[in-house]
Amino acid sequence: MKKKYLLAPGPTPVPERALADMALPVIHHRAPEYVPILQEVRDNLKYLFQTKQEVLIFTSSGTGAMEGCVSNLLSAGDHALAVRGGKFGERWFDICKAYSVNVEAIDVEWGYAVKLEQVESALKKNPEIKAVFIQASETSTGVYHPVKEIADIVRKRNNTILVVDAITALGVVNLPQDEWGIDAVVTGSQKALMLPPGLAFVSLSDKAWSFAEKSNLPKYYFNFKKEKKSLEKNQNAYTPNVQLIVGLREVLREIKEEGLEQVFKRHADLANATRQAVQALGLKLYTVDKPSNALTAVWAPEGMDAGKITKLIREKYGITIAGGQDAAKGKIFRIAHLGYSGYFDVITAISALEAVLKELGYKFETGAGLKAAQKALFGE
């Protein structure tokens, strides 16, 4: 028997209590027993997003909510700005192109965070820009972009909104939407929300809703105004993934039980321990500045294919971590520590990494990574 561990940056493990709830018989989404479930979910999503706004729920991956942000907040001929510093920054750009939005890009070298002066310069150069699209945590590179500072820049412009993909950031780091003035926050169920893939969420500021009132781009399923109107009646506009909504109720309860401050601290502790461990093995972080607390991206040893590391860890030890994407394919591996993750998930990951590196011929002091991780997590 081989026990399996899911330590990739999505999908992530699901808590036992949520799994048990989702195994209950399916209920109808218009039945009376669904009403209190959805109401509790709506209330607790506001707690997670740190907003007074309604959080819209769609049955899709997070990309659906990303597409919805473009089609609901912009109009034909509008200008937009996308920060391209990884695979998912490129996605914002591509979605804008698909809707014939006049989008320009700030191209950031992978592994680096965007600089504030780059955003300010682009906005000054083109005052017609109506939306800035960015990742909070760029999953492909392990970079955290300076969302708060960018929100401060955009908030001063009455005709520009900030749209943030927080799919691997919400529930990992502090992202108080209302306090920071973020106009749109997007996330998905399969990351820090600790559920299987299949739900997408988006919350809009009053400023963003004013943009939605003027939008003339085509939309049907991802219609924000229609979904908001239904939620205000405590209903979903279309058939939701009922079992995931049931599971969502439970994971949101668990997040509230832990408390947001402790949730953020736990993720910071796990991220720090992982970074300390891989560096103690003589490995280099792929993320040059502002590392995300959701995952750790690491260069493979020189001359070694990172794909061999991820493959051997999975096949021999039953542990799924992630490799690199596109420009980083075969060069890096990524260890996630978000959502339903604890101290011993880090210990497990580093133990397997040491075993695989040793087997592949990499020279290091056995136990150095484990010692560093244990010191970071438990002290001397």
Structure commentary:
The protein has 380 residues and is an alpha/beta fold. The protein folds into two domains: 5-10 and 259-378, Aspartate Aminotransferase, domain 1 (Alpha-Beta Complex); 16-257, 3-Layer(aba) Sandwich (Aspartate Aminotransferase, domain 2). It has 14 helices and 14 strands. It has helices at 16-22, 34-49, 62-73, 87-98, 116-125, 147-155, 177-180, 206-214, 224-231, 242-258, 260-280, 306-317, 343-359, 368-378; strands at 5-6, 55-58, 79-84, 102-107, 129-135, 137-138, 143-144, 161-165, 184-188, 200-204, 295-299, 319-320, 322-323, 332-336. The strands form four sheets. A seven-stranded mixed beta sheet has the order 2-10-9-8-5-3-4, sandwiched between helices. Helix 7 links the parallel strand 8 and strand 9 (184-188). It starts with a strand and ends with a helix.
Tell me about the largest β-sheet. Answer: 7 strands, mixed
Number of helices: 14
Total domain modules: 2
CATH architectural name of the largest domain = 3-Layer(aba) Sandwich
Order of strands, widest sheet: 2-10-9-8-5-3-4
Helicity level, as a percent range? Answer: 40-55%
Oligomer: single chain
CATH level-3 fold name of the largest domain: Aspartate Aminotransferase, domain 2
How would you classify the helix and strand content by structural class?
alpha/beta
Order of helices and strands: EHHEHEHEHEEEHEHEEHHHHEHEEEHH
**The CATH H-level homologous superfamily of the largest domain:** Type I PLP-dependent aspartate aminotransferase-like (Major domain)
